[in-house]
Amino acid sequence: MIAMVGGKLVLLSLAVAVAGAIAGFAAGGWSSSRSVLWIRRLARAYAALMILANLFMLRALLARDFSVAYVAQVGSLDVPDWVAFVSLWSSLEGSLLFWGLVLGLYVFAAVEYTASRHPDLLPYAAGTWLVCGAFFSFLASGPTQPFAVVPDPPFDGPGPNPLLQNHVLMAFHPPLLYFGYVGTTIPFGLAVAALLTGRLGPSFVRSLRLWLIVSWIFLSIAIMLGGWWAYEVLGWGGYWAWDPVENASLLPWLTATAAFHSMLLLERRRALAAWTLALVMGTFLLTILGTFMTRSGVFNSVHAFSQSAIGPTILALLALAVVFSLALLSGRIDRLKPGGQIGAALSREGAFLVNNLLLLLITFTILLGTVFPMAVEALRGVKMSVGRPYFDAMTGPMGVALLLMIGVGSALPWGGGDRTLIGRALVAPLLGAAVAASCGWLGGVRSGWALLTLLCGGYTTQAVLREMARPFLVRLGREKTPRATTLANIARARRAYGAHLSHIGAVVVIVAIAVSHAHSSSQEIELTRSIPARLGEFTLTYLGSETREEPHRISMVARVELARPGRSVMELAPRMVQYAKQRDPVGTPAVRMGPFGNYYMSPVRFEPATSSSPARATVEFMIHPLVGWIWIGVLIMAAGGVIVLVPARGVSVTAVNDDTQSIARASRRDVS
C-alpha cells in the first residue's frame, strides 16, 4: 500500500513539475494575473506532493515495511527509531527523494515571495525551478525508484552504514547540506529570469542576495558539521582531508561568497552585473557537479554513495545547464542597463574586487585538483590522485592573502580619497596585527605561516572592529545623541553589522585552521592496566574497559585517565563499536574540548587480560590547539548572515569617514 501510493505521488509530482515548467516559460512572453495564479497553484501542488511522498517513506522506514525497496535496502529491526528516521537520506534513493522535498519547500516559498515582489519575473524563474523539480522527480520515479515493491520481502534489513549511526550529527549534517545545495536553485532561477527579461533593478538585487545568503548560511553550517562529524567519528584526528566530496561542498560556498560581495557593488555602483549573474549561475552549476561527485560512484569516499547508474544522467544535466547558462549570458547580458564604474583602486570597491578574484582563484585551484584526476582517468585510463600537499600548498597562501584583504577592504573608504589619509587608515590596524602575533608567540606558536596568519588576523580584526564602532563613537562623541537613541540606530544597521560579524567569524576560522594545522601533535602509545605511562608532560593510566550493550550495537569502552602537572585529572573513553550486521568494529575516538585546544584519543586495539598478561589498550593520543574555534567561527559567520537577512527599514544612521574628517548622512542601506 505504502509503496503503491508513494510511487504514484512521485509520478504525479513529475507531471505537475513538467506542467509548471511549461506554463512558466509559456507565460514568460506575456504576463497576466491568471498565468501567475496557475504557476502558484502548480508550485504549491509540487511541494505538497513531495512532502506527502517523503512522509510515506518515513512511515515505511519507521514501520520497517520491507516490502518497500528502499526500506529493504537500509532498514533494520535492530536500529532505534531516530536511526530509522535519518535513514531517509542515508542512501542514494532516499537522498534524492529528500532532495525533492527540500526543493519543493524552496519552490513554494520562492514562488510566493516572488509573486508579491517581482510578478514580471515569476514565470521564467518558476519555470526554471520546476524544470529542476521535474529532473529530480524523474530520478526518483525512474532510475532509482525508492518506492519499488519487493516481491518477496525479507524479514529484516541490513540497516544504514554504521558510520552514519555512530554520531548524532548525521541527523543534521546531510539535511542542512541539502538545504544549502538545493537553495542555490532559487537565485539561479532569478538570474535566468533577469537575463530573459532584461530587468535587474535594486529591488531584484536585494531579493537575489536574500536567497543566495539563505543557501550560504545552510551550506556554511553543513560544511562545519561535516568536518565536526569527521573529527568526532573517523578517528584520524582531522576535520578536512581535501576529499573530492568535501571539496564539492566547498566550491559553491566560495562562489556564493564572492557573488554576494559583488552584489554589493552591483547595488551601490550599478557595476559588475554580468560578473554577479555569472557567479550566481556558477554556484548552481557547482552544486550539480557536487551532486554528480556524490552520487555517481566516480569517487571512492566515505562521504559518497555507492556506484549507481544515475551518474551519466546527472552529468547530462550539468552539461545542458552549462551550455544554457553560457548561451544566456552571452546572448542576453546586453539587455541589462549599462552599469557604473567601480572607482579608484585604493577604495573599498577595489578591495572587494580583489577579494572576488582571490575567492575565484581558490575555487579554480580546488576544482582543478579535484576534477583533474577524474579527467585523466576518463581520457587515458590511468588512475591518479592529487593529495593534501597540493591543496595545502596552493590554498594556504591564498587564504592568508584573503584574510588580509578583508581587513584592507574594511579600512579603505568607499570611492577612495586622499592618499595620505588612506595611508593612515591602512597603517592604524598594524597595532592589532602586532598584538595578535605577540600573543601567539607567547602562547607557543612558532610556525612562520601560523604567525603570519595571526598577524593578518589581528590586522583584520582591528579594522573590522573599528568599522563596527565607528557609528557608535561618532554619535556619542560628535553629535551628542542620547545613548538610547544611539543604540537604537546602531541596532537598526543590521546589514552592516551582520557583514562585520561574518568577517570576524572568518578571522576566527582561518586563524584556528592555521594554528591547529601547524601545531597539532600525535603519538601512539600502548597502555597496561593500572600502570601509569609518561608521554611528554602527560601521564596516562589505563583504568580498564567495560562493555555497553544497545539494541543495535555493542561498545567496548576503554577508560583512560589523563593527568598533567598542575592541572585537574580528566578521563577519556575511546571505544570500539561492533554493529550486529557489520563484521569489523568501528573505532570511535574520545574528544575533550577546551578553550585553547582539544585532547583527542583514538582507539587502535584493546587486548583483554589473560592468565599470563594484564589487559592492554593501544591508543593514539593527539593534541589539537584551537580546533574547537573552527566550529565557533563558522557559527559566528552564519549568525552574521542571519543578521544580514533582516530586512532594511530605511532608517538612517551616520556613516563617518575619519580619513577625511567628515560626517555624512547615509541611509542604512549604504552602510557596510
Give a structural overview.
This protein has four domains: 160 residues; 196 residues, no CATH class; 169 residues, no CATH class; 106 residues, Tick-borne Encephalitis virus Glycoprotein, domain 1, CATH 2.60.98. The chain contains 21 helices and twelve strands. The protein is flat, with a radius of gyration of 27 Å. A hairpin with a 3-residue loop joins strand 8 and strand 9. With 672 residues, the protein is an alpha+beta fold. The C terminus is likely disordered. Strands 2, 3, 4, 5, 6 and 7 form a six-stranded antiparallel beta sheet that branches. A four-stranded antiparallel beta sheet has the order 1-10-9-8. A two-stranded antiparallel sheet has the order 11-12. It is 61% helix and 12% strand.
Jot down its keywords.
flat; 672 residues; alpha+beta; disordered C terminus
Give a short summary of the structure.
The chain is of the alpha+beta class and 672 residues long. It has helices spanning 2-27, 33-63, 69-74, 81-86, 92-117, 122-141, 162-165, 173-183, 185-197, 202-233, 244-269, 273-295, 311-332, 348-380, 388-411, 419-427, 430-442, 448-477, 483-492, 494-519, 628-645; strands at residues 521-528, 533-535, 538-550, 553-563, 570-572, 575-579, 586-588, 590-593, 597-607, 616-625, 652-657, 662-667.
